[in-house]
Amino acid sequence: MKLLVAADGSDKLRSAALPAIAKLAADADPEVIVLHVVRAATEAWSDEELKQVMAERQHRMEALVADSDIAVQVLIEALPYGSDMHRYITLRAADLEAGAIVVTSKRATGLMGSLLGSIARGVLRDSPVPVIIVRPSEGTGDEPSPFD
Fold first, then answer.
1. Listed residue (77, 89, 83, 72) closest to 51, CA to CA
2. pTM for this structure?
3. DSSP 71
4. What topology is assigned to 2-134 in CATH?
């Protein structure tokens, strides 16, 4: 099965999502694609700056997956101007023929709005494939993405 992991750049990728995938698909040998999307319109003001930002994100994501027990492909892509992040993720899942999308939740408890960020809620609502929501363990992966 091909899994698309939507990654925000936080340690939740290493501390929660990848270990959960490894447990869930121990005998399935999943194809795991980590997708990190750069908001080009707000994070880079020129093509050269966008290339630099994307190279930095590639390095960061590869460091986060380096010690994973499963093989992972990292994709760094620029969000087209005017696009919604959650729609982009769900469209890429369809393009990549992913069998499921993996997102991490917040650690808070309560109503769905406080459990999931707006991007995760949008992915859950609009996804053409099943969505696996991984909750970080207590005390791990709760810091925000360094890119927000």
1. 77
2. 0.83
3. -
4. Rossmann fold (3.40.50)
